[in-house]
Fold:
Amino acid sequence: MAEPGPWSDEPVRIVVTFPPGGTSDLVARLVAQYLDTEFGQKAVVDNRPGAAGTVAADFVSQQDPDGTTVLLANNAPFTIAPTRFKSIPYEPIDGFTHLAYIGASAPGLFVHPSSGITTLEEYVAFVETAPMTYGSSGVGSISHILGEAVDAAVGVESIHVPYQGSSPAIQDFRAGVLDSFYDMVVQNSDMIEDNEAVALAIASPERNPQLPDVPTFKEQGYDVVIENWVGLSGPAGIDPAMAAKINETVLAVFAIPEVRDRLTELGITHTAMSTEDYSTLVGELIEVWKPLIIAAGIAE
Structure:
């Protein structure tokens, strides 16, 4: 087993598929900070948003496999893009060395308190007679796919209103423009606590310990489990010894209590796994997401 520590004399560039300020960006900066302060590995964050994460993924796939460029990987370019787009400029499994899985967070369904709806059962009864609008962070986003999956499970057709990111959707929800919205549950805990939104269900396998009163879709009779995962992946061909070193070092970062606490605040449940298991998981998730993406009508 490799010992945690620096793997390159050069600063490591962590490429992020989204603009600054979002969850992926915050996780990348958390990793970069503690790689430096705790393990002596300099790291910088490089935001390269665009084309549902494929711009950043394509860029990283073309870099030298020397461990100095890695991607803050997530669903968008790896488990959604392969089915959503007719073609992508990289191979999601063999085109990368999947180095270190970090964890996953789950979205959920929110309604306005003024609706009087407090349970998923009440929501289903309501939308069967009067379809509701729901906001998402964009066509093809996890929140959109979840909305379509819930509609399919419930047997209704809601009115999808896509936004460019979750913030404007939430703003319109607060203003009464939207009846409901789908977004990451833990990140909206303040709205729940301030009674600005009612969380009817979370799409995780089990309840989140931070919000134990929010039930899962599954326990309420609907087999809907959709999570957004994050990890570190590099170009194909990284030396196995270096890959093992990176894996052990990243796992050591997330073993630090304050790092785990910050990850929990972001709604991400950390899971340690080997590079082999992480790579296998990416392949499995492509197949899991394929029918969801097709059902959502967003596959080209």
